[in-house]
Design goal:
The complex is a heterodimer of chains A (347) and B (451). Chain A has 347 residues and is an alpha/beta fold. Chain A has helices at 2-16, 40-46, 51-64, 86-90, 101-121, 133-136, 151-163, 174-179, 197-210, 289-293, 312-318, 329-332, 335-346, and strands at residues 73-75, 81-83, 124-130, 170-172, 220-223, 238-241, 249-255, 260-265, 274-279, 299-304, 322-328. The longest helix of chain A is centred in the N-terminal third of the chain and has 21 residues, at 101-121. In chain B, helix 4 runs antiparallel to helix 5 and helix 10 packs across helix 15 (340-358). The chains are: A alpha/beta (347), B mainly alpha (451).
Amino acid sequence: MFRKLLFFFLFLPLLLIPINFNNISDFEKRLLVGFNLSNFSSFFNDHFPYREELISSYIFINHSIGVSVHPNLFIGDDGLLFLKSQDNITDKQRNIIFLNDSKQENIKKNLELIYDYAEKEGISIYFAAIPDQQTVHYKKLPIWHTKLNNQDKFNVMQKIFKEIGHENNFIDLRKPLIKFNKQNSPTYYLYESHWTNYGSMIASKKILNHLNMIDKNMYLFKKMSFVWPDLYLRENLLHVDISNLEIHNKQLLYEDMNEKYFRYNTKKAIGNDNLLIYGDSFTSENRNFPFYMINNFSSVSRVSSNHQTLSHSLIKIFEPSIVLICIAERNFFEEALFNSIKNNLIN
Amino acid sequence: MVFSSLEFIFLFLPILLGLIYLFPNYKKIILILFSVLFLFIAEDFFILTVSFLALFNFLLVKLQLSKFLLGIGIFINLSILFIYKYLNFFNSLFNFTDRIIIVALPLGISFITFHAISYLVDVYRKKVPVEKSFSDFYLFMFMFPQVIAGPITRYSNVYKKIKILSNKYYDLGIYYFILGLSQKILIADQLGQYVDEVYSLSVNLISSYDSFFVMFLYMLQLYYDFSGYTNMAIGLGFFIGVKLPINFKFPFSSYSISEFWHRWHISLSSFIRDYLFIPINKIFGISKNENSLRYYSSIMFCFILSGLWHGANLTFVLWGLIHGALVVFEKALKINKRNIFSKTYFILALCLSFVYFRSENITFANNLIGNIINFDSSENYVFLQFLNAKFLLMLIASIIFADKHYCLIARNLLRKLNNSKIIYFLLIPLCYILLNEMLINSFKPFIYFRF
């Protein structure tokens, strides 16, 4: 009898398991692992039946007792969920000097070469460091975490740009995103590391102001409601409704294995410049970031820094007059970033 | 594929049990095929090498096993182990060739060679008959529950059961499997997060507090990880009809390192005792428990080899040396009292020695131990990150269940619950938690897979 029970409980449900072969999940910002015998374990894990529902409910239970379920996440005050970053946790405690003199010198050298290239090609290149969620919600960091707003980091970078005579080419997004971060309209999500659509709009306003452009956009705000199991993945926040935005032209310029890259423009546009946004997931179309700029430029394109390098050939394809490099803080303040951009543009 | 992976629990195991249920007459063939598949998934074509090794050992004993042939057999088995596990290590020590030797360490090689040696020696000692069926011998060598991380199974303990493969103990199998899975997922992996976090830091960035806590928590992690794996293996053994040996008997209930080795990784310590220590003493005419340098030397030698068996690294050799020295110290001074002082000595000696076991190199281990008394080491307090309800609950549970007294109370309670059938209602949330922990922490290899 027991054998029969075991058989029915273990074997038959297996045949009925509705494995989901879809590689795209709203749940995670990565592509799920496709079917591959050599990596079957990851595939099976990623496509396990009811995976999203199970994990979501589990996060809900754990989070409600103040426990982070993932080793790479930690919980701050009021239940905020942060991505763990070892450097941020202990920079001060470890007495690590951020960007020492030799690193700063290397960044300067690379930036000078980048701006020589820009001058030769007749383009303007701007760098914008997108603050991390920990920097914006720094007051909510847990007691054991050093509560830094990372002012020093941004100041050091501002100084580097000033010393090479390009002070205006560094855009500090940190201040407005912290200033406008309110309890009922957060600029960053509470449970994941990106900015909200509202935060994305605040950043775009800052960039337009920095470029001496007047923001011509009028967007509506509306409250979006999400229901369980999305409860701990997204929040009930102010979302920006861009449905009144008219995009008259959407031209596919380039595509790679992961994404398609378009050039957008509207008839209402008042600018003459072609803007190329080179940035990580913060700047994606899903977060409306390119669309907040669209009325001020002749055209706007966006290329993912996660999948593409900013090379000379890419510049030739998109033919921008302005390049806006937007990288998250955790990757921005690295000597290697500037070295890599220089190498890819010049070589 | 590890026992605590989703594909093992929801694919491999149900298909295996389903086929055994549908075709009971072909059980042995099914088990061999699944064992080969299991090792193939883990180590690709290494299965061919060890299959030849199995064939060699099987045929060797057919030739009237003399002392000379036994020596040849042990030499060949140890040579395979040496090539795969120690060639790079000894080359790095003695630099006998400039050529880069790339030999990947296959999972389970240490266990497979010990299975083979136990068979040869037991046949030579006429403890067991010569196996006539190659399929039975092959199953003994590569039976999937014990092939990768033990317990080290002796042919004399299992050959009769392999012939019958009667599986009347499904309920015991489920009990042991879920117990082992819970130990691994709910305790070892949780404690492991803290341990890994501390050990990932540069040693000068580890605070005194973390250096102190991590040596205790690593010991608990290692125990629950390895004991959890063994319990899962035992549970799987019950599923297929083979009773595998118990490997742990509450090791932290010990009061000395000598006692600890009667309770920790029993299948290894008894293997070394029976196949190395006793024969050495016999050869050199050393009597049991004699108070002589020769006797203590043979203890030290066995512990150093035991250390080397755990890994091709000087840290393991030093770890074995420390344990050997402590056992000699205890025997020489006849330390066998069971009081608070001996308990404190035991816990401290054990946890400090296992710092060498966990560390990548001896310098790191020395500095970590030095950090404990150096209160200026660092103000980076990793343990503060883990002060949450879940971690503390698991820590308390890990301490309670490591104690024989409390564990027996819990076991009796479990037995009463089992009789009242409430157990089924408790199993549902337990399985839900286990499943989710597996989904979130998709892959964490067992610590003992390295050995």
